[in-house]
Design a protein that fits this description.
about 600 residues; alpha/beta; binds NADPH dihydro-nicotinamide-adenine-dinucleotide phosphate
Length: about 600
């Protein structure tokens, strides 16, 4: 035993698994799933498939098109657009228009109404602007209807309904050089102008379907989870899907969405077939009502402090206390720098890079062993339990947390169809084929996720034409180029929110908030300088692209060894639009610090004002 092995055992406890065998098993499972078609395995929901993105919740009201001018246009009425509208309003910008495809505010929470939908980051951190609205969520993890209601309340609070265009999709955004403003066109015939435009389209907003033979042949009922058809299933977010009591239902996919809706489908359908390609990691949820003592203990500024505490813990920084104390912080406590710091303290020196990597790998095996043991303990049939065990490292796929998903497989009417990485093979008129067997189904639900890694303009559904007629789709064809992920040269007064060279956080609304605060600051500074136009400079953009490149290699080897999924471009090494390629490698804590320092410097470095 080396000095380090002793510390390893001391830090992690006795190891009751064979790490080499596990590594081999992980690579074996990965190799079964690697495919060269990556994103091409999915169909874009256009043409024959465009009905999959129709709004099933409400009819777009008839209205006259608008041809006016606003100061700022915000594309997207989800959390990004709401935060942007709110922060702009606080900075005194009131001539603001939100354009939103959905029939109301809420974004992902407008669309994703499937039974069981809930946030899986603690609601006290996740729901934006709780203190501003003086609201405390009812549960530690809120259910979708409450989150949507909160979204509407934010819009009311900041008067965003007044000028909003709902049920409206933007079709073109074009810079008018002669007048220094944007022209925004929509699918409702609107053509209005705006001095500035903020794009808050959302990172996972475009549903995708598997490009499998015969998908058009199936004659039964189908829908995607992000457009749940309650007219067919009956029931609500709380379940009781009475329309399914005499139905044989199939659900394709076992990601974070399926994990939340499968328990309700299992409870309601006559027969449920869950078609699994790769199992998710299902950790403890432990949801609970918000205790009154917690509410009474909150002091002004509590939400920001809580978000900061959570964000720091989930990026590996040490904190005196863990305010959220849930599955996320538990994972990160063990799988990030926090574990390395504990080991270094015991060792009395810093870990070598190799020791650090070994510690992380061993902690990961250990954590995933607890996840696999959980499946084994909960699921009665050992064969089904084995199928539900994930054999990959924790962050190869998005961790899931649920207490009812695994027990659902003990129901006699619920059948797991484990395709062992192959997926479904073919659709027929009456069902589908998997593992060579035909399954007759009344209804097929696609829980197959959302486009990630396709181009920004394909996902947003419109192109942006900047100064001198330059198209954003051309400019970003070989990868994003921005200042801080927010602005790009050639596109004056345009701001991009979300994952466009910013930092990815577990608690996404925190990033959106930082971005909104930053854009409100920029527009305020431009106003103070008696200017009306701000644009990223070539040098400013290059400096951020260089910083992105310098930090980009972090995690690349890790992801290359992962089972395919949207975190690693479906197993394809290079994709300039990939989920992590477009994110700042040094992480959110550093990223927020950079934005904050930039604001404090006050000189709008990397941008020109005119
Ligand atoms: P995912 O992309 O995570 O999952 C898609 C699923 O479809 C995977 O299980 C995939 O398998 C499977 N699949 C794809 N093609 C086939 C095929 N041909 N045959 C069989 N299975 C197939 O989408 P989700 O909608 O589940 O989640 C997307 C993201 O949305 C999450 O990662 C999370 O970020 C977010 N989300 C957040 C929630 C919250 O609470 N805040 C709740 C739900 C979602 P494979 O793994 O093999 O690719």
């Amino acid at each position: 035993m080396t000095e380090f092995s002793d510390v390893l055992v001391e830090t992690l406890g006795a190891i009751d698994f064979d790490p080499l065998a596990l590594k081999e098993k992980y690579l074996f499972e990965r190799d079964k799933r690697v495919r060269t078609d990556a994103n091409e395995q999915y169909i874009e929901v256009t043409g024959d498939f465009s009905s999959y993105v129709d709004d099933p919740y409400q009819q777009a009201p008839e209205r006259e098109p608008v041809f006016d001018h606003v100061d700022v246009a915000i594309i997207g009425g989800g959390f990004g657009g709401l935060l942007m509208g709110g922060r702009l309003s606080e900075a005194g910008f009131n001539d603001v228009r939100v354009i939103e495809k959905g029939g109301d505010f809420g974004g992902t929470w407008y669309w994703n109404r499937y039974p069981g939908a809930m946030c899986d980051v603690e609601s006290y951190c996740y729901l934006p602007m709780l203190e501003e609205l003086d609201y405390i969520p009812k549960h530690k993890y809120s259910f979708a209807p409450e989150i949507m209601e909160h979204s509407k309340n934010i819009a009311r609070h900041y008067n965003l309904y007044e000028k909003a265009l709902l049920s409206t999709g933007v079709t073109a955004v074009t810079w008018d050089d002669a007048h220094d403003h944007w022209i925004i066109e929509t699918d409702k015939g609107d053509r209005f102008t705006a001095r500035a435009v903020a794009m808050a389209n959302g990172p996972l907003n475009r549903p995708k379907l598997p490009a499998i033979e015969g998908i058009n042949d199936y004659q039964g009922h189908t829908f995607h989870t992000s457009r749940w058809d309650y007219d067919y299933t009956g029931g609500s977010n709380a379940g009781s899907l009475d329309g399914l009591k005499d139905k044989r239902v199939g659900i394709i996919g076992t990601g974070a969405t399926a994990v939340q809706c499968v328990p309700h489908l299992g409870a309601s359908a006559k027969e449920l077939f869950v078609f699994q390609r790769t199992p998710s990691s299902i950790d403890v949820r432990n949801n609970r009502e918000t205790p009154q003592e917690f509410v009474d203990s909150l002091e002004p500024g509590w939400q920001y402090r809580r978000m900061e505490n959570f964000n720091k813990l989930v990026t590996g920084a040490e904190q005196d206390e863990d305010l959220v104390n849930d599955g996320w912080t538990d994972i990160f406590r063990n799988l990030t720098g926090i574990a390395a710091k504990t080991a270094a303290k015991k060792l009395g020196r810093r870990l070598t890079p190799q020791e650090r990597a070994e510690l992380m790998e061993m902690s990961d095996y250990r954590k995933m062993e607890t996840i696999r043991t959980r499946a084994q303990e909960i699921v009665d049939d050992p064969k089904i339990a084995e199928s539900l065990k994930p054999y990959y490292r924790q962050f190869c796929k998005r961790p899931c947390f649920h207490d009812e998903y695994l027990p659902t497989f003990n129901r006699p009417n619920v059948h797991l169809v484990d395709t062992e990485g192959k997926g479904i093979e073919q659709f027929t008129e009456t069902g589908l084929i998997a593992n060579g067997e035909h399954y007759e189904l009344d209804c097929i639900i696609f829980a197959t996720g959302f486009e990630v890694g396709t181009s920004y303009t394909r996902r947003s559904g419109y192109d942006v034409v900047g100064r001198d007629g330059q198209k954003l789709s051309d400019k970003w064809e070989n990868g994003l180029r921005t200042v801080h992920g927010l602005q790009t040269e050639g596109f004056p007064n345009a701001f991009f929110m979300g994952f466009t060279q910013g930092a990815i956080t577990v608690n996404v609304p925190q990033t959106l908030n930082e971005q909104a605060v930053h854009v409100a600051y920029i527009l305020d500074k431009v106003r103070d300088a008696d200017g009306s136009v701000i644009e990223a400079t070539v040098e400013g953009e290059q400096a951020w692209v260089d910083e992105m490149d310098a930090k980009a290699r972090m995690g690349a080897k890790f992801r290359a060894e992962c089972t395919p999924g949207y975190y690693n471009n479906e197993g394809v090494a290079e994709n300039p639009n990939g989920f992590f390629s477009a994110s700042y490698g040094a992480g959110p804590v550093k990223f927020f610090e950079i934005l904050n320092d930039w604001r404090e410097a006050g000189d709008l470095e990397g941008c020109d004002v005119r």
